[in-house]
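Q:
Got a chain?
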Amino acid sequence: MKLNGSLAGLSFYRHKHYGWLVRKSNPVSTERIKKAPEFARMRENGTEFGMASRAAKLLRHALHGFLHNIGTTFLDNRTMQLMLGVKQKDTLSKRGQRNVATALVQDPTLLGGFELHASSKLDQFLGQTPVVNALTGSISLTAFKPYNIPKGATHIALTAFCGRLDFTTAAKGILFSEILVLPLDGLCRDVELIPGKPSGSEGVGIYGMKVVFMQEKNGELYSLQTGAAKILESREADAEQENTEAQLSVNTHSENNGIAPFEGTDSKTKYPFSRPREPDG
């Protein structure tokens, strides 16, 4: 039986991931929660929750176009959990005012290591930890050879980003590298992706990378919707280097590297593949 609404002190509703759920209705009026002294702690928690929610939204919106082809189930919940954990590190603000921006002033590295895919981890496909050069914004791999290749994949696409997020003003700036598409031919390659660095010195700088596996069919590349993305590092934003032109440089251990770079821009990357499709047998 499916119910929607309230009945006998219970509220029935449908969750987009978990289906039909039921919970107890709140017997306390909103007005009492807002004013009664016994709910002071609840009001403090609600204020902090709201600030963390806005911080999570800023991060998701900054990377929205970057994540569209790897699957981001539960990303809303996971970024919210991340920001709630970050604001707990704020030791300067009073209870009820602890926030992400202040916590990151104290420790700008708190966003580093966050996996943007719910179940896939970037390192499981790379077999190594990418190296970040904070001066140029470049991200590099040495003798790169993909691991855990899914069935049907013929190519792998790599993209990097460098961004600046100000959780006080909600300002954001993100630059993406060109998309580097490599054939899965068993060769090792040295790879350097250079998205550049957004201008500005406020907030926190973030550096990340994404991999997506592809299948070539009749001369076209199709995303298999299999991959991973990760915020590799976060650190204090630095305005000393303002290289804003996306570049890509690749060295290879093979005479015939088979590399196919594609054009990208600072806000909307032009992805070089068509609609998602299931891999052929």
Q: What stands out?
A: Confidence is low (pLDDT under 50) at residues 239-279. Helices lie at 30-35, 40-62, 75-87, 100-106, 122-126. The first strand starts at residue 5 and ends at 7.
